[in-house]
C-alpha cells in the first residue's frame, strides 16, 4: 500500500505492555527522518464495537514530543485492539503507523499470591502452596502453569 507522507517519518519500535492487571504503557520512537517539529498522537480502539479514543496521558521526551502513552483501567477483551499513531508537522506530511494487538499477549502477570512454605523435619519434606495471580480476563484457572525453582543453601 502507498501511504501519504514522507518516508521515514512514521514512528518506529512501537510496543505496549499491560501490568498490574489494568495499567498499560505504550512507547515508540520518532521516525528517523521526521522533521524536528513533528508531534505524534495515539488513537486506539479496544474492539471493533468500541469508539476510537485518543491517549489521555502522553509520555513526552525532553523536547516535549509524545513518545508514549499511559493507560488506566484497561480491560482485556477477546478481540484484537487497534492502535494508530499519526503525526503532524508544519513542514511535511507524516506517515501513520497502525497495528492490531491481542492484549492478553502483552500482559505481564502479577506473581502468584499468598505463597507459603511449610517444612517438616521428617521425610514428608516441604509443602508449598499459592493462589493464582491477579488478572482481569482469565476465568479458567487451569490455564496457569507454574514452575518452582528450589535452591539448596
Account of the 3D structure:
The protein has 153 residues and is mainly beta. It has a domain at 12-105: Immunoglobulins (Immunoglobulin-like, Sandwich). It is 0% helix and 39% strand. The strands form three sheets. The chain has a four-stranded antiparallel beta sheet, with no helix packed on it. Strands 4-3-7-8 form a four-stranded antiparallel beta sheet, with no helix packed on it. The chain starts with 11 loop residues before the first strand and ends in a 22-residue tail after the last strand. The mean pLDDT is 90.
What's a quick, concise take on this entry?
Keywords: Glycoprotein, Membrane, Receptor, Signal, Transmembrane, Transmembrane helix. With 153 residues, the protein is an all-beta fold. It has strands at residues 12-19, 23-29, 39-45, 53-54, 58-60, 66-71, 81-88, 97-101, 113-119, 126-131.
Task: Looking at this protein, list some descriptive labels.
mainly beta; four-stranded antiparallel sheet; Granulocyte-macrophage colony-stimulating factor receptor subunit alpha; Short_hematopoietin_rcpt_2_CS
Amino acid at each position: 500500500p502507498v501511504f501519504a507522507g514522507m518516508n521515514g517519518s512514521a514512528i518506529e519500535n512501537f510496543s505496549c505492555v499491560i501490568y498490574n492487571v489494568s495499567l498499560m504503557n505504550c512507547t515508540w520512537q520518532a521516525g528517523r527522518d521526521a522533521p524536528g517539529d513533528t508531534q505524534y498522537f495515539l488513537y486506539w480502539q479496544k474492539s471493533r464495537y468500541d469508539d476510537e479514543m485518543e491517549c489521555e496521558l502522553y509520555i513526552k521526551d525532553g523536547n516535549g514530543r509524545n513518545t508514549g502513552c499511559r493507560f488506566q483501567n484497561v480491560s482485556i477483551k477477546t478481540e484484537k485492539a487497534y492502535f494508530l499513531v499519526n503525526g503532524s508537522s508544519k513542514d511535511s506530511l507524516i506517515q501513520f503507523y497502525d497495528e492490531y494487538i491481542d492484549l492478553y499477549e502483552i500482559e505481564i502477570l502479577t506473581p502468584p499470591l499468598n505463597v507459603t512454605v511449610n517444612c517438616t523435619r521428617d521425610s514428608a519434606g516441604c509443602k508449598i502452596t499459592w493462589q493464582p495471580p491477579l488478572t482481569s480476563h482469565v476465568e479458567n484457572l487451569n490455564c496457569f502453569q507454574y514452575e518452582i525453582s528450589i535452591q539448596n543453601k
